């Protein structure tokens, strides 16, 4: 299996620009998670989906962040407008109905200048 | 609010020694995860502990869970340099298929 796929792997953008991060979960997995990792705050859950439905978005920092999962094999995390404090590594993870571990993608390293 | 605390946060040890990393969490949960992260890399799943008293071992690493004490341990036996990494414990907020709350991680350096 290819594992969780994320794109882009690196993104450098300027403050105020829109950023879209993409994730393809492992085939057959029905839970998808977005996390953010920074030195200051560690690993934080942003939002997760079960069967393509958002379940808990309480970790989404503000209205500038939005996430969608239009089908079982694709999710996006959008930041509009981006700010320097959004600079972080964003991980996508997937699992099968919580019956096993969450498998993490390689991450997207975002730098907002 | 679920809180997960690891200690120590930083550990430098010599090869061949044994040591234990501790993970405490604040609310009831029956699922605890251990992950490994190498610098600049993603998180690699090590163990999933699903019930009180669960013990799992893989090579020089052994993890255990005491849900009554809300405590998990990751024990390293006869450490080798390749085990140098950051180790995270994480707890599910709900009963399954739920997001994880992570500890701050234990940065482990194993010196020859």
Structural account:
The complex is a heterodimer of chains A (113) and B (112). Chain A is mostly beta strands and 113 residues long. Helices cover 0% and strands 55% of the residues of chain A. Chain A has strands at 5-7, 10-13, 19-24, 31-38, 42-50, 53-56, 65-71, 74-79, 88-95, 103-104, 108-112. In chain A, strands 2, 4, 5, 6, 9, 10 and 11 form a 7-stranded mixed beta sheet that branches. In chain A, strands 1-3-8-7 form a 4-stranded antiparallel beta sheet, with no helix packed on it. In chain A, strand 4 (31-38) and strand 5 form a beta hairpin. Chain A is globular, with a radius of gyration of 13 Å. By secondary structure, chain B is mainly beta. Chain B has strands at residues 4-7, 10-14, 19-25, 32-37, 43-49, 55-58, 61-66, 71-76, 85-92, 100-102, 106-111. In chain B, strands 2, 4, 5, 9, 10 and 11 form a 6-stranded mixed beta sheet that branches. Chain B starts with a strand and ends with a strand. The mean pLDDT of chain B is 93. Chain A binds chain B through residues 30-31, 33, 35, 42-45, 48, 50, 56, 59, 91, 93, 95, 97-107, and chain B through 31, 33, 35, 41-45, 48, 88, 90, 92-93, 95-105.
Task: Note the topology.
The complex is a heterodimer of chains A (113) and B (112).
Chain A: E1 5-7, E2 10-13, E3 19-24, E4 31-38, E5 42-50, E6 53-56, E7 65-71, E8 74-79, E9 88-95, E10 103-104, E11 108-112
Parallel strand pairs in A: 2-11
Antiparallel strand pairs in A: 1-3, 3-8, 4-5, 4-9, 5-6, 7-8, 9-10, 9-11
Chain B: E1 4-7, E2 10-14, E3 19-25, E4 32-37, E5 43-49, E6 55-58, E7 61-66, E8 71-76, E9 85-92, E10 100-102, E11 106-111
Parallel strand pairs in B: 2-11
Antiparallel strand pairs in B: 1-3, 3-8, 4-5, 4-9, 6-7, 7-8, 9-10, 9-11
């Amino acid at each position: 299996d290819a594992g969780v796929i994320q794109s882009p792997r690196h993104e450098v953008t300027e403050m105020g620009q829109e950023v879209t991060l993409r994730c393809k979960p492992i085939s057959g997995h029905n839970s998808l998670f977005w996390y953010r990792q920074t030195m200051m705050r560690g690993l934080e859950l942003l939002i997760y989906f079960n069967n393509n439905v958002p379940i808990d978005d309480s970790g989404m920092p503000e209205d500038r962040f939005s996430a969608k999962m239009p089908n079982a094999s694709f999710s996006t995390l959008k930041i509009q407008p981006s700010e320097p404090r959004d600079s972080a590594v964003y991980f996508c993870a997937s699992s099968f109905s919580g019956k096993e571990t969450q498998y993490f993608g390689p991450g997207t390293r975002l730098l907002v200048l | 609010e679920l809180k997960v605390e690891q200690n120590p946060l930083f550990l430098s040890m010599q090869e061949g020694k044994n040591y234990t990393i501790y993970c405490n969490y604040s609310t009831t949960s029956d699922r605890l995860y251990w992950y490994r992260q190498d610098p600049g890399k993603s998180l690699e799943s090590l163990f999933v502990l699903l019930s009180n008293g669960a013990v799992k071992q893989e090579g020089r690493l052994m993890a255990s869970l005491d849900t009554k004490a809300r405590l998990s341990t990751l024990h390293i036996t006869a450490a080798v340099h390749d085990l140098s990494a950051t180790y995270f414990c994480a707890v599910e907020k709900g009963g399954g298929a739920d997001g994880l709350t992570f500890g701050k991680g234990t940065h482990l350096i194993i010196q020859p």
